[in-house]
Amino acid sequence: MNRKRAARRPMPSPHTSTIKDRHVRQIVDLVRTSGVLDELAPLEAARPGPRGLPAETVLVGLVLAAREKRSTNVDDAWECMQFGLRKPWLKYFGLKEVDTTDIDATRASAKRFYDAWSRVTTLLDPARHNRRTRMLRHETEPYRRAWTHPQGQDATPVLSRIANRLVLTPVRIAVARGLMDGWGGDLSVDATALATWAKRATRRHASLEVSAGWHVSGGGDKTFGYSATLLVAGHSDPELAGRYPQLCMGLAVHAPSKEIGQQAVRLLEIVQHLWPVKGFIAGDLAYSDAKVENFHAPVRALGYRLVLDYKTTMVKKDKDAVEGTIAIAGELLCPHTPQRIINGYHKMASARDSAEREELLPRMLDADPYVLPLKQSADERGLERRQCPAAGTSPRVNCPWAQERDTAAARRRHRGQSPRPARTSHVVDLDDPRARRAHPGARPTVRPPDRPEHRRPAICQQSTITVPTDIMSKLRQDLPWGRAAWQRAFRSLRSHVEGLNGRAKNVETFLHSRERRQSRGRVAQTLLAAVQLMVENLRSIESFLRTRRLWAAERYTIGAVPQTPDPYGVPTAPDESDDITPPPKAPKT
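Request: output the structure for the sequence above.
Response:
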């Protein structure tokens, strides 16, 4: 920071209010116990030159500014630390007392603080460059390439760990205090826009944010900056509402439309160390259309169950999926499924809102009898058995080909024996719903064409078929798409992530406001967004405690994190499950 820039900065008010000691102590505990300082310590030790202000001073100042001033600008953080703390805290953070009327001393204090922030971002930046002058477009290629890994891995793992340590520290508080006991492990993932304080690229010159781009929201709105992938705790059953605080479980800042699936998987790998219970995970159409090897397969390997919607182009009929069945929307249907059933899938895919989907629910229920039921779960080879819907002791449809197949099979079993008369029941208990559904007259009847037996599909020649589990790997879900259970789970989980977006972009957290996050560079944007979400998680916990009238008892101790699982540590023993540095003692007042 040069003298000209410092001269333009508005001088702090001489009547700046003093921040309460308990608030400062809480933030110090959070920063110290998050493990961020342990991540930065070896990097700072390897850097030559004077140490300056410690990184703790800068991080605590940013969190205090986010809570007290609703801003993460560095000048606001400096004002909170220099003019909002009492003398014992100034000594603890390595700051000198400055008279607001002394311009030279004020500039020197601000420069030390800015230098400390610049040192932190420099340590974490894989390709730092001058952000005061625009480069030509072709000159930015090596800097953009530094943010991508050739094997698709995280190019800046230390930065990602530091950001998520900040975000997850309040989550570890909630886990340790039992506030998350009512959470079943369901999650929702979404990518939201993170606007930057930089102009977009021109035809000749690149932007100062060389790795930024245009984030296109679902409504078509464009924002120049980065995409922030957020993981939110939720529930698929609306009955669980209000039993736990809805917290942000992870943050990943990346270039728009790049590595969407991989970023979500990395966050899930972090969460599984913190919370072993795994449930459903919902995402929007961007995750449905991601590559299977980047999102769907890794998520299933981690033990989570997908709840995804489909684009209209993804819901299409495949007549020759496997053994003559019809594959559509992740389900295998009878090869003789009527066209009106197939049209029901298309109408559900083109539905515009949840109200229209509820109206189409009866049409989707009409498709259930034609779905091939699971006969045997997958084995170690990844193969499962599916049954013809007209076979078994409880057939779902009537089919003349199935009757011929069953009659021929009975003849082969009883060859050489006297034929047994078929047992038919002419009495139906109309008061028994199960008896009514089991009667042939209550089942739909398929009408196959006139075709010799050897030319029929394999599913029509035998009662069961072998199906690989990786078939339709992008479309398969545990909850049948479009049915009542799927609609309830998808609507509930998506409302959680949209709720977090609403809270994170309000006047309290201001995640969407680039004016409250003016530092340039992807490292700075990542750290400041993590601070904002960390504060939002704290507010969510406090709101949850106030709702349950527990806030008075937790008021002074919420910042003390007990020995909870470290999401980046591999626990070896119950007593060594956390590598947190003990909170420092508060200065004597």
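The first strand starts at residue 186 and ends at 195.
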